[in-house]
Amino acid sequence: MKAIATALVKAQREFGPALKSSTNPHFRSKYADLSACIEAVIDSLNNNGIYLMQLTDECEGGVKVSTVFIHESGEQMSGGSLFMPATKHDAQGFGSALSYARRYSLMAACGIAPEDDDGNQATKTAPQQAVPIKATPKPVVQAVPQAVPPKKVAGNDSQWQLKITADPETHWNDWLSVVVEGTVFALDMAQTKDDVMTVWRTNANIYKMIEKQDATAYAELTATFKTYKESFNEQVSE
């Protein structure tokens, strides 16, 4: 395994971040899609004699994907298999689950992550302004504490249940992005207006938490659910 290990180390030095180039149509946020993840690593892998292959295995209730690196010497290395449940057992449901599984399996195997646009923006220091000296002291205004994501949170037991675990260092925006992505994934699988409402009821405790911490994100969340419900009304009228 020496040849492929050496080549992978060289390739990883050239990996770029998975650029958030796709826009979620329901939330005004960007995310790194599968093509962006592949583009971040494929040239570096190929330039170092490595072929990228993603295999699928038959399994019940979802899809299982393995990311495998094949070196021109004939040596191979696997990143392990990742199971992704399919919320709906139809072509659309399994297709979405496959796309999610391929994306997360690839990022885990290559050790890359989406570009942290929000984090990079937050680290920029604003220019300091001169503070005028006044005889009368001003009252001290305490800063509003940043929202802290819960370590573990889950909706009610259901096929639409969201389960999210966060590290202590997880930023609220990153946690929120995972909730949004999981919610949109579930809503994409919904086939009736009742399914949409079940997604909401199942994960109501998570959404209430967002309402308390981020009013803007909660407003966008409720607007998204309304859009999905109305889409089913339009299908009936047609």
Structure explained in plain terms:
With 238 residues, the protein is α+β, with helices and mostly antiparallel strands. It folds into two domains: 2-116, no CATH class; 148-237, no CATH class. It is built from eight helices and seven strands. The strands form three sheets. It has a three-stranded antiparallel sheet. Strands 1-2 form a two-stranded antiparallel sheet. The protein has a two-stranded antiparallel ribbon with strand order 6-7. The longest helix is centred in the C-terminal third of the chain and has 23 residues, at 215-237. The chain is globular, with a radius of gyration of 22 Å. The model is unreliable at 21-29, 117-136 and 140-144 (pLDDT under 50).
Helix tally equals 8
Radius of gyration: 22 Å
Mean of all residue-level pLDDT scores: 78
Task: Give the proportion of residues in helices.
Answer: 40-55%
Low-confidence stretches: 21-29, 117-136, 140-144
Principal-axis shape? globular
Query: What is the β-strand count?
Result: 7
**Order of helices and strands, N to C?**
HEEHEEEHHEEHHHH
**Roughly how many Å apart are the termini?**
60 Å
Strand content: 15-25%
Please give the order of strands in the largest beta sheet: 3-4-5
Number of domains: 2
Give a short synopsis of this structure.
The chain has 238 residues and is an alpha+beta fold. Helices cover 47% and strands 17% of the residues.
